[in-house]
Amino acid sequence: MASSAVKSNFYKWHRVLGLAALIPVIFWTLSGLSHPFMSNWFRPSIAKEVFKPLPQSKMKPVLTIQQVMDRNHIIALRNFNLISFKKGTFYQVLGVDSVYNYYSATDGVLLPHGDTDYAEHLARYFVQDSTSAIQISLQHSFDSEYQTINHLLPVWKVSFDRPDGMDVYVETGQSRMGTFNNNTRKAFLSLFEEFHTWQFLARWGGDTFRNVVLLIIMAIMLFALISGLTVYGLMWKKFKTMAQSRKTKGMEDKRFLHRFHRQIGLIVSFVMFTFVISGAFHLAVKLHNSGLVKADYGQVIKRGQLLVSNLALPVADSLINKIGLTSFSGNVFYQVTDKQKQLSYFNAGNGKEQLNADEDYARFLSTYYHTDEFKTFSGRVTVHQVKQFDNEYGFINKRLPVERVSYPNGENWYIETTTAKLATKVTGIDRAEGLSFIFLHKYFGMTWAGKNIRDIVSMLAAVGVLVVSLFGFASFINNK
Length: 480
Known about the structure:
Helix content is 45%, strand content 18%. The protein is built from eleven helices and 17 strands. Helix 1 packs across helix 7 (207-249). The longest helix is centred in the middle third of the chain and has 43 residues, at 207-249. Pfam families: PepSY_TM (PF03929). This is PepSY domain-containing protein. The chain crosses the membrane at residues 212-236, 264-285, 456-477.
């Protein structure tokens, strides 16, 4: 049987740890309660979420990319595409300086402020608003309103001057939307960033500093939970005897705050455990993956490498939804995307189609994005195109379609070949953390009941943790 000194020490440490964790618990539970409103009930709607480009047959370009380059004395570029807006067809050319310029596909004349105009065109299409005044700016980094979860950079932020304060973020190079926010969502995003992810710590000392501090707080919360359960286990007979004595003598329950704290604490202890463990695991994996990220693959293609006209490829114009360039393994290819998002590659030197080139390009890019410790694997490396989001490659990754490059050690590297970007990589620990977070922290196990029910259950769990913490604090104050 544990001595009274041991019981007293456990009780003392539980109070100290509980007080240390009180403010973080209040911050996390209140901001967590806001998440269903931000992501579900108060989430703004937008008229169009996807932009559908015209096929090349309807854009009817007159000039080839070579003619446009020659007329404008462009000796090299990174990529190009054909787009249609302002009642015209333009070559969207990504220069060596990584800036987009727009040239008429009819006469090759440069369109002033073309990228800004195209960003406005896309934003007005998504919102279906052709009259409101706008403000537009190019954004190269994430912030409180355009957070890292959106992945896409750089983007144009297009702000509409109207009562809802709608902002639309668009990536002109892929004619797609990063995200959209109205005034309500912006307020929720700021609240969540400051009180749930504690971004203010990152501003003071960087992401690693923030993650370490949060992990320490998570450890304090875990020990507060364990010490509380231990106190109850050691002293439950005493608590029972005190309650029976009080009832027998008809005495007033002056320690009802303590009793509520214990009873509610027992009920929500498992919930708190799942929140803490999944949150701590999430932070630990972030620290594990916080190494240097390799710079994006950057190709430079010279005019002399484009021997075959982009308008003379052996594929019908009606099937071409997007066209661009890739350079790998010593060759330059036209990369053609059709209506089904299938990619075909045609050698820019001789016009011949290169079979399985998208898989080869994905392997090439995956090898590039591996750091210097990249090792040769003894097993087979497989490549599979992913056209829909799933449990491993979720919607937060934004990019589709991608090629999944699977290695024998269980790693999956997801490559968006149309932009040569690494969408994400998933290792064994990433899978475990992802499952832990969505089931233990976000309650995806309740998805079968519907999103509303899942959100209500998660909110009740957060309220339970908040209430038991407040009762604990009230008990501490009552002892003074």
